[in-house]
Write a structure and sequence with these properties.
Layout lengths: L2 H8 L4 H25 L1 H8 L3 H23 L5 H24 L5 H31 L1
Helix pairs in contact: 1-2, 2-3, 2-4, 2-6, 3-4, 5-6
């Protein structure tokens, strides 16, 4: 990802701020998703064609994960190891979402659209966070 594109997406030319902004955006989106899954697991499960119990568990997991990502985003200089862990978890989540879709989920049409869409979003977070972290390292 080019520096200009990274700066445009993060709306800052300071790499450390870009890392924090991408982490914060990830925390907000993931937290909202997790809360929705947890609070409305029944209706959302029916709508997406995913077991409500699984959606509830994923919702709680995502909410806790989002809190950790938010904590990292709140640090003036998020530790590189923590950011790398978030990048890795996001990449694994994106891949496992597609694997689950192909291997064992039997989603509705909405679920068939939603699953790759959320996988692409999470993969995009991983890419943006990784690029911002590299920019931080290059600026030192």
């Amino acid at each position: 990802m080019s520096q200009a594109l990274l700066a445009g997406l993060a709306r800052t030319t300071r790499p450390q701020s870009a890392v924090r902004r991408f982490l914060a955006l990830d925390a907000v989106v993931t937290g909202a998703n997790g809360i929705a899954y947890a609070v409305a697991s029944g209706p959302l499960g029916e709508f997406l064609g995913v077991d409500a119990g699984l959606l509830l568990e994923l919702g709680v997991l995502l909410a806790v994960y989002a809190a950790g990502v938010a904590w990292l985003a709140s640090r003036p200089q998020p530790p590189a190891l923590g950011v790398k862990l978030v990048v890795d978890i996001n990449a694994v989540w994106a891949v496992l979402s597609i694997v689950a879709l192909l291997a064992w989920l039997e989603p509705t049409t909405a679920g068939l659209v939603w699953t790759p869409l959320q996988a692409a979003t999470v993969g995009g977070f991983a890419l943006a966070q990784w690029a911002a972290l590299r920019a931080v390292a290059a600026s030192r």
